[in-house]
Amino acid sequence: MGYKYHVAISFANEDRNAALALALALELNGIKEIYYYPDKQPADAGKKLEHELKAIYSLEARYIVILLSKKYFKKPTAMVELEAIQQRMSREPNVVSVIPVKLHKGVSLKDHEGLKELQWLDWEFQPKRIVEGLLEIFKTNNIPINKETKQNIDRRDVFFKQVNRSKKSRDQSNNATLNL
After folding, report:
1. DSSP string of 94-146?
2. Residue 95: left if φ>0, alpha if ψ -120 to 50, beta else—which one?
3. What spatial distance separates the first Cα and last Cα of the chain, rounded to whole Å?
């Protein structure tokens, strides 16, 4: 199935800074097909927002990142998005499509059907780490990604291999020095 968006970000308006940081980190890593509501407001003007959101979160996005906070579960728009997300999860129970990210340690998923079974990521103010995890998921699930994103992933992999080689070499050198 072709998707309009690689990633859609669901969040409470109070968590807009975290959502923006994540959207920018995704873009910096070559992911250009992102649904981040503030960027789409002009295009959505005059449309029935509830219908648009249901389509995006249930059909049009390959992955959905939910930025979970205490405010998220109190927002009417977020609840429309969550309902569409849960419908998608029940329609595609064996497909990894929803990645919850807890913005705060005190957020509990136990009362939220469908979400409570999912593993989540902790925000810890590190959008770069969240994006690295998402890129790994894209790679593992053989999601078609554009050439720029693939180059970024390949560069990142080469960089980490070089860092690991350098660290290993440094560790061996330190061990040799200690053995003298």
Report:
1. TS--EEEEESSTT---TTSTTTTTS--EE-TT-HHHHHHHHHHHHHHTT----
2. beta
3. 61
SS3 category, 5: strand
For residue 154, is pLDDT > 90?
A: no
The domain locations on the chain are: 5-145, 146-180
- pLDDT band, very low/low/confident/very high, at 180 (cuts 50, 70, 90): very low
In Å, the largest CA–CA distance within the chain is 75
Calculate the alpha carbon distances from 78 to 9, 24, 27, 86, 92 in Å: 10, 21, 23, 12, 21
Fold of 5-145: Rossmann fold (3.40.50)
